[in-house]
Design a protein that fits this description.
Largest sheet: 2 strands, antiparallel
Shape: globular
Strand order of the largest sheet: 1-2
Oligomer: single chain
Distance between the termini: 16 Å
Number of helices: 2
């Protein structure tokens, strides 16, 4: 399934624009949409939980989990890994 969203890397959207475009949930750092088959990654630098960043046009995203090592088999981390 192809999904045309019209966005460019590093575009900044409001939460409402994000939900409307991707048909995803209103909360969470990783939001999977069954309707668009998209995994939306939220990088919020107003909070200091994670240190997501762009390096040479590659987005380094932290994933889910705040305690211990993160698992690639856990929740949305698995979708991101696949």
């Amino acid at each position: 399934m192809s999904f045309e969203h019209g966005l460019q890397p590093s575009d900044v959207l409001t939460n409402q624009e994000l939900m409307s475009t991707f048909k995803c949930a209103m909360v969470g750092g990783m939001r999977y949409s069954h309707r668009t088959n998209a995994l939306v990654l939220i990088s919020d630098h107003t909070k200091s939980l994670y240190n997501d960043r762009w390096i040479s046009n590659v987005f380094h995203y932290t994933g889910m989990g705040q305690v211990g090592h993160q698992s690639l088999d856990y929740s949305q981390n698995k979708k991101l890994y696949q």
